[in-house]
Each structure stands twice: as C-alpha cells, then as structure tokens.
Design brief:
By secondary structure, this protein is an alpha/beta fold. It is built from 1 helix and 8 strands. It has a 4-stranded mixed beta sheet with strand order 2-1-4-6, with no helix packed on it. It has a 4-stranded mixed beta sheet with strand order 3-8-7-5, with no helix packed on it. The radius of gyration is 19 Å and the shape is globular. The termini are far apart.
C-alpha cells in the first residue's frame, strides 16, 4: 500500500514539474534585459511608453500584459518578435544609432518608436 502512495506522489510531483517547465515564458532567445532596462507594456491594444530614447547598447523589453497575442515588429525589418503570448516578453538590444519605428502585426493601431543615440559612456542618462 505504501508503494502505491509513493508512486502516486512521485507521479504528481513529475506532473507538477512538467507543468512548470511547459509554462516557462517564451523570450525568443534575444538578449535578456538588464535590471535598469526600459520596459514597454502591451495591454488594452496599446504600447505603454511607446516612444522612448535610449543609448546605443541598451536592451529594451516588451511585456505582453494583455490577454491577446501581440508582436513587436520593426518597420524596417531589423527585429521581429514573432508572436508574444500573454504573460510572455521579448527583448532586443539596440546597437546602432537611429530611429526604429515598430508596430504590432496583429493590431495596426499599436505603434511606437525607439530613438537610439550614441552612448557617451554615461549609461542610459546624459543624452
């Protein structure tokens, strides 16, 4: 009888671990954002902080806080998140100076702009 309970407990544990692993957030294998990285949220069919300025070398993260699938797609094709599931995130490191317009391929009214300026060695400030 103890063997039956042990096997049941072991099976429940394995299922719980497998569920947690399967629920891991999808990040598209892009560079992770640092602790001070700008975060743009997707919710209610808008990007929060949609238009920001960062220094070159900065990683920007987009979090999908909505119940719908979204994308973060550069108008010039320089980055494309693919589908970002609810609760998941996407990050991208901007290495080149310039202006990068982006949009959600599933919702054309969701747009934003990242302006990347030269890194003067002062981190994200000083531009």
């Amino acid at each position: 009888m103890k063997s039956k309970y042990f096997l049941s407990g072991t099976l429940a544990f394995i299922i719980a671990v497998a569920t947690l692993v399967a629920c891991k957030k999808y990040n598209n294998n892009y560079s992770p954002a640092s602790g001070n990285a700008p975060v743009i949220h997707m919710k209610g069919s808008v990007f929060s902080n949609a238009n920001i300025q960062v220094s070159s070398g900065t990683t920007v993260m987009w979090n999908n806080d909505d119940m719908k699938v979204h994308t973060v797609t550069a108008d010039n094709g320089s980055f494309n998140s693919g589908d970002i599931q609810p609760g998941a995130s996407f990050s991208f490191t901007f290495k080149s100076v310039g202006t990068f317009a982006y949009h959600d391929m599933h919702n054309s009214s969701m747009t934003g702009m990242i302006t990347v300026v030269a890194n003067n060695g002062g981190g994200m400030g000083g531009y």
